[in-house]
Amino acid sequence: MQPYSIETDPARRLLTIVMRGYWDQPTFDQFAGEYSQTIRAMHASGRLHFALIDGRDFAVQARQISDQFRDLIAAHQSYVAPRTATVVPTHLNKLQAERTGEAIAARYFTDMAEAEGWLFSEA
Fold it and tell me: Is residue 120 within 8 Å of 50, Cβ to Cβ?
């Protein structure tokens, strides 16, 4: 199984990312390149409104990888969706995700249905 997938739904202006496992540097680097390309392309074709991050199978990451996620998000702050829902499996994952995503307005959930309900409540 792949460590991540990035999908777009231009009609809904939705970015969906699924992240799995424990990442090494090459995995992060590959993800960062694809993420950057995808988010910039979505922004160029019309503003991105929603992002759904499925991290239910994403392990707590090493500090180096976590810090790089924070930097990646901050570097793309002007492109990110104003409404982002992140689903995590545990409270520890939630704490790491909150620290990593502090540059954006995101909400964190442990239940996918609840995350989707919040994400699209103003759609």
Answer: yes
User: What distance lies between CA 57 and its chain's CA centroid?
Assistant: 13
Q: What is the CATH number of the domain that holds 108?
A: 3.30.750
pLDDT (tens digit, 9 = 90+) per residue, 46-97?
A: 878 999 999 999 998 999 999 999 899 889 888 888 889 999 887 666 666 6
> Which residue from 14, 22, 7 is spatially nearest to 96, judged by alpha carbons?
22
> Can you tell me the distance from the alpha carbon of 23 to that of 114, in angstroms, rounded to the nearest whole number?
27
User: Per the structure, how many domains does the chain have?
Assistant: 1
Encode 110-122: b = buried (16+ Cβ within 10 Å), e = exposed.
eeeeebeeebeee
* Whole-number CA gyration radius for the chain: 13
- Give the three-state DSSP class for 24: coil
Q: Find the domain containing 79 and state its range.
A: 4-119
